[in-house]
Design brief:
The protein is mainly β and 432 residues long. It has a domain of 174 residues: Thrombin, subunit H (Beta Barrel), CATH 2.40.10. Helix content is 1%, strand content 48%. It is built from 1 helix and 33 strands. The strands form 10 sheets. Strands 19, 22, 23, 24 and 25 form a 5-stranded antiparallel beta sheet that branches. The protein has a 4-stranded antiparallel beta sheet with strand order 1-33-32-31, with no helix packed on it. Strands 2-3-4-5 form a 4-stranded antiparallel beta sheet, with no helix packed on it. The longest helix is centred in the C-terminal third of the chain and has 5 residues. It is globular and about 55 Å long.
Length: 432
């Protein structure tokens, strides 16, 4: 078991945060809310926490704020953002990372309906808005938001063109929906979802998540009718599928199940099943609505059941609100009334000192944005962000004593420090 390194809180800046931070050249950039409906892009000195500059911003209409994206143009670091304008005249802009001054603006107007693809042509030195398919030195990035995967395309320096670029997603072409995996920007393999037993209509909406791995990709992506207002699906229509990352071979699948659990293991994947329904909730794998359920630990590569245990419907439904174990690998909390620590490899009690366990909590941050993008009723948009922070077993905010080893990809590296966005402040830790 990996021993977590000690973590020291170096500085903290109070703010109503709405995104994880991005970092480059000693500067951290984050979205925050100032006032009731105002969205602000704010930059901080990553070493000291000093606020350097702010700029008014607009969220992408479909996907809220996302994480600020920093790229390079004309040998300078810039932040790609959407600047608010009058009468839906929002513009994609590039702001100088050091002082926030505008260095480029989209030549066309109109609101942005998806994440922008930005580029800086040598002849015009402008930042283009929309879904331009211009050729050039581009890098594909991936963002999975509310169960849908979107590809971002941004200009980068020439030497970044050889970076490893891979993503797993679903794509529909000519009425056929496929699971696809891209490696180094090229399609490596694809599998039609109908071959796996899925019944997907042309207007159905994907939801769920997937766990990428060097050897195995486990997908709990499923579909629901786009016109569904209650966002509830029957459990017996769901399916978990494992793919060989290199070849796309289907290693195993399990019907009537969904990935579950608040921890991870290198060899075991936990799935839950039961008689009932799954309510699709943004930021989670879904909330179970039923009386009885079963949690099982499956061998990651074969799908063989290693262990199983009974759960109440309340136990599974409570999963989204349980703290994640941050300080110990292969351990997670299970249960609604009196959660217990279990070993993911065996399903039995975890052999750890409960007082020495650190946790991480996920909080949803609802907020209103004033722009309605042409809506006639004048009402603000109701948006939600998902942020995390160190917490106690009871969910009370605290500070990290050790840096998380059981939360993959958590925190933003900022030179010698690591940054964490909790809902009410930005924190910088020194690790080790």
């Amino acid at each position: 078991m990996t021993e977590p390194e000690p973590a020291e809180l170096v500085w903290a800046a109070d703010a109503t945060l709405l995104s994880e931070p991005s970092y480059a050249d000693g500067i951290a950039v984050v979205y925050r809310q100032d006032g009731d409906i105002d969205l602000t892009l704010a930059a901080y000195d990553a070493a000291t926490g000093e606020e350097l500059w702010t700029a008014d911003a607009t969220p992408s209409v479909s996907y809220s704020t996302s994480t600020p994206h920093i790229t390079t143009a004309d040998d300078r670091s810039v932040v790609i953002a959407i600047a608010p304008g009058e009468m839906n005249d929002d513009r994609l802009v590039a702001l100088d990372l050091t002082d926030g001054t505008e260095v480029a603006r989209a030549p066309s107007h109109g609101y942005v309906t998806d994440f922008p693809r930005a580029c800086f042509p040598d002849d015009s030195k402008t930042c283009l808005m929309g879904w331009s398919e211009d050729s050039g030195d581009f890098v594909e990035l991936e963002a999975s938001v509310h169960g849908r995967t979107i590809r971002l395309r941004d200009a980068v320096e020439d030497d970044a063109s050889d970076e490893d670029r891979s993503w797993f997603t679903t794509e529909t072409d000519d009425g056929v929906t496929r699971f696809t995996y891209h490696l180094d920007g090229d399609l490596a393999w694809d599998v039609p979802v109908e071959e796996l037993g899925f019944e997907v209509g042309p207007e159905d909406t994907p939801f769920g998540s997937y766990s990428p791995g060097e050897e195995v990709i486990v997908s709990s992506v499923n579909w629901m009718p786009s016109e569904s207002e209650d966002r509830v699906v029957a459990m017996d229509t769901l399916r978990v599928v494992a793919f060989d990352t290199a070849t796309g071979e289907v290693l195993w699948s399990r019907s009537g199940a969904q990935t579950c659990g608040t921890g991870r293991s290198e060899e075991i994947v936990t799935v839950c099943s039961g008689e009932g329904e799954l309510e699709v909730v943004a930021g989670t794998t879904g909330v179970f609505r039923g009386e009885h359920a079963t949690m099982a630990g499956l061998d990651l590569r074969t799908g063989e059941e290693v262990w199983s245990s009974d759960l109440s419907g309340e136990d599974w439904a409570a999963e989204a609100d349980l703290p994640r174990v941050a300080s110990h690998e292969g351990v997670m909390l299970v249960g609604a009334e009196d959660p217990v620590l279990i070993d993911i490899s065996t399903g039995g009690p975890a052999d750890v000192d409960a007082d020495g366990v650190d946790y991480l909590c996920l909080d949803s941050r609802p907020w209103n944005y004033g722009s309605t993008y042409g809506a006639d009723d004048g009402r603000p948009q109701h948006l939600t962000e998902m942020l995390g922070h160190a917490c106690t077993r009871e969910g009370e905010p605290t500070e990290f004593r050790r840096w998380p080893v059981n939360v993959e990809g958590w925190g933003t590296e900022a030179g010698e420090l690591h940054l964490i966005a909790r809902p009410d402040r930005l924190e910088a830790y020194r690790v080790g």
